[in-house]
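Why does residue order matter? Because the sequence determines the fold. Keep that principle in mind as you read this record.
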Amino acid sequence: MPQGPAEVPRGPAEVTPGPAEVTPEVPSGAGGVAVEAAEGAGEPRKVARVVLLDPADRILLLHGHEPDDPADDWWFTPGGGLEGDETREEAAVRELAEETGITEVELGPVLWRRRCSFPFAGRRWDQDEWYYLARTTRTATGATALTELERRSVAGARWWTCRELTRSHETVYPTRLAELLRRLLDDGPPAGPVTLDTEIV
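Structure:
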């Protein structure tokens, strides 16, 4: 369903199996969606996502799928929609804690911005996503607050090396994540947020 596969072998790399252990606050359509988004709303849902790296420069991705079709699956970064009057930074930290249980993070700058639109759970979602860089020394994950829909649509979490992402045949969002991660690791964060191509699935 999501566009543009990005490879990832399902090898051992610290997999966190089972929906109960990963918690995207939003069901994960093309790259993690929010079920709170209003149908037909004029404004896209504001989303904060986290590019979380461990000491070995591996990135943490969540494994999502359509609630009624586990075969229609993809990998995506932790994150979700803003709640109330919180800032994107606050939403990024909260979402990361809810979805992975990781709270010891060093939140960095906004790396990328992306607009995306995709179908998920019988609806279409339109999102304006900001991707924050973050670092952690903790690699164990465990969701702390999954909704019923999230329990039906999130299958786990896994740390990926850049090489694994590059060689994988799995669908990953954003679709150029392996290339973006390689550039980040080689050159460091960009001087300012980079606007990624709009993705419409």
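The CA atoms of residues 6 and 31 lie 12 Å apart.
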